[in-house]
Amino acid sequence: MPIRNKAAKDIVDGSLPQRPDCYEGERLVRVLKSIQRGVESARVLAGNSLPEKIWLKQQFAIGINDVTRVLERMAPIADKGSSAQAPCLRLQAILLAADCNPRWLTKHLPTLASSRKVPLIFVKDNKKGSLRLGELVKLKTAIAIGVKAKGNAINQIIEEILDGDEVNDGALLEVH
Predict the structure, then answer these.
(1) pTM of this prediction?
(2) What is the DSSP letter of 81?
(3) What is the CATH number of the domain that holds 106?
(4) Domain that holds residue 123
C-alpha cells in the first residue's frame, strides 16, 4: 500500500508510529540522494539569481515551527471535498525524523498533517535522522521539512516516493 494511504491509518493517538516502511538504511540513502538531485536540478532550472538559503526556504518549510505554521495556514480538507479557495501555499509532503527526542516536539504533526491530507515520510537513521534531513537543506539538523508544492523536480521525486515507486538512482527528473 502506498505511503499516501497508510499515513492516516497509522496515526491513532497523535504519536509517531513505529512503521516498518520507515525510510532507513540503504533505502534512506537512495531516497535522500534522489531528493538532493531534484533540489540541484530545480535550482539549475530556476537560475541562480537568489542566494541558496533563500531559494531553499522558497522550496521547503524548514523546522518544526515553520512546518506547523504552514500546516495551520492551510485549510483543513473535508473528506468529501471543500468549496473553499485553495491556499496560496500548500505542502506536498513532510519529511519527519522518526527518532526525534523528545517525542513531544513532533507529536502534533501527524494529526495536523492528516487533517490537511499532507502525507508524512518518516526518516530514521539510528538516532541521526535529523542530521540527515539537515544535510538536505544545508543545515546541521532539521527535525521536520515540509516540501512546498511548486511543480518542480523536487515535487516529481516526492510524488514517486509517495506512490511507492522505487526511486531510480540514475535518473534525473525534468520539469514538464
Answers:
(1) 0.78
(2) -
(3) 3.30.1330.30
(4) 22-76+88-162
- What is the rounded CA–CA span in Å between residue 161 and residue 166? 7
Q: Check if the beta carbon of residue 117 is closer than 8 Å to that of residue 20.
A: no
Model confidence pLDDT, tens digit, residues 79-111 = 445 445 554 689 999 999 988 888 889 999 999
Residues constituting the chain: 176
Phi, psi of 31 (to 5 degrees): -65, -45
| Residue environment code for 13-31, b if the CB has 16+ CB neighbours within 10 A, otherwise e | eeebbeeeebbbeeebeeb
Q: How far is CA 157 from the centre of its chain?
A: 11
pLDDT tens-digit map of 123-173? 988 878 899 999 999 999 999 999 999 888 999 999 998 888 665 544 443
**14: in domain:** no
